Amino acid sequence: AMQSFRKSLAIGNKQSEVITDKNYNLIGYVHMRLGNYDSALYYYNISLNTLNKHPNDAHYAGLYHDFAMVYGKINQLDKAANYAEQSVAYALKSKSVSHIFEAYEALEYTALLNKNFKKAYEARNFKDSIYLFQNFSENNAKISQIQMAHSFEKQRQQTITTQQLNQAQAESQLQKQKLIRNFFVVSFCLALL
After folding, report:
1. Radius of gyration over alpha carbons of the chain, in Å?
2. How many Cβ atoms are within 10 Å of 149's Cβ, its own excluded?
3. Percentage of the chain surpassing pLDDT 90?
4. What is the torsional sign of CA 96, 98, 104, 107?
5. Following DSSP, what letter does each residue of the chain receive, concatenated?
6. Mean pLDDT across 99-107
7. Predicted pLDDT of residue 69
8. What is the pLDDT of residues 28-66, one digit of tens each?
9. Could you please report the per-residue DSSP string of 99-111?
């Protein structure tokens, strides 16, 4: 998979000089997941150099999160904590909820590694509040949709009920008119006899 990705990256380099930092970041992420931390750092650094040419706060936040996670795994705790702090700063500047969540994840992770439990607890609480807020917002939208659908269905049922009631009243009126007509016809027939 890595060879195929590198080949596609090489083809992309030949076709266009614009290779995004995300491509290199992705290669670094794969190496991190495989436990190849030196290779992960190598590609993260290439991603950082590419990103410096076209700055993007959200991408910095994500990349610094990844740096923090790798440095934490190789036990370079000061670097990990520094990158986690940078990730939070860029995530807050970007105002991207997903990047803020991810940055506080790195902050919690590095604080735990550094045995700063108070900071880890605060980061976890903030991260959880973001998660709850995000789910609350999504759930509010779903609840509103359900309420609208319920309201529409209730109106539809009321309309059907009203139509059925009107139809029953019309049929009742028709029955009364037929009875009255039949009474007159029978009365007329009896009067003729």
Report:
1. 35
2. 10
3. 23
4. negative
5. -HHHHHHHHHHHHHH-S---HHHHHHHHHHHHHHT-HHHHHHHHHHHHHHHHHS--HHHHHHHHHHHHHHHHHTT-HHHHHHHHHHHHHHHHHHT-HHHHHHHHHHHHHHHHHTT-HHHHHHHHHHHHHHHHHHHHHHHHHHHHHHHHHHHHHHHHHHHHHHHHHHHHHHHHHHHHHHHHHHHHHHHHHHHH-
6. 87
7. 94
8. 888 899 999 999 999 999 888 888 887 888 888 889 999
9. HHHHHHHHHHHHH
Type of residue at 170: A
Residue 30: which of 14, 9, 54, 51 has the closest Cα? 9
Which residue in this structure is represented by tokens 């860029």? Answer: 90
- What distance lies between CA 66 and its chain's CA centroid? 21
- The pair phi, psi for residue 190, each rounded to 5°, is -70, -35
pLDDT(139) > 80? no
172-175's contacts with Cβ under 8 Å and 24+ in sequence apart are none
